[in-house]
Design goal:
four-stranded antiparallel beta sheet; mainly beta
C-alpha cells in the first residue's frame, strides 16, 4: 500500500496502527543515512475497510509523543449481484425485469 520514511538520532522505531491495534512493527534501516522505512501491505481490502484510519508512528524514546501520520481509506468496490431464476426455461416472448 505504501511506506513512510522517518529519520532521527537515535533512529526511530516505525509502526503502523489501526484503531489502537498494531498492524506492523517491522522496519528497515536505510543504508547511507539515518532513515528508517516501514512498508505496509494490505493483501485484500474489504467493505469494512471503508473509512478506516491507519496511523504510522515513529518513536525513538519514551519521553516525547511519537511523530505520526494518519491516512483514511476511501474504498470503492464493485457490487456483487446474485441472480436466482426459479424457472428453467424462458422464451423470447417472456417479459423479465431484474431489480437490484
Amino acid at each position: 500500500m505504501g511506506f513512510l520514511l522517518f529519520s532521527g538520532k537515535p533512529r526511530p522505531a516505525v509502526t503502523w496502527w489501526r484503531d489502537y491495534a498494531l498492524l506492523d512493527d517491522t522496519y528497515t534501516f536505510v543504508t547511507g543515512d539515518n532513515s528508517v522505512r516501514n512498508e505496509l501491505e494490505i493483501e485484500e481490502l474489504r467493505r469494512n475497510d471503508l473509512l478506516a484510519v491507519l496511523q504510522c508512528q515513529a518513536s525513538n524514546n519514551n519521553i516525547t509523543v511519537p511523530a505520526s501520520v494518519s491516512i483514511t481509506l476511501d474504498v470503492n468496490l464493485l457490487a456483487s449481484v446474485e441472480v436466482v431464476l426459479f424457472r428453467t426455461a424462458y422464451s423470447t416472448s417472456d417479459n423479465l425485469q431484474l431489480k437490484s
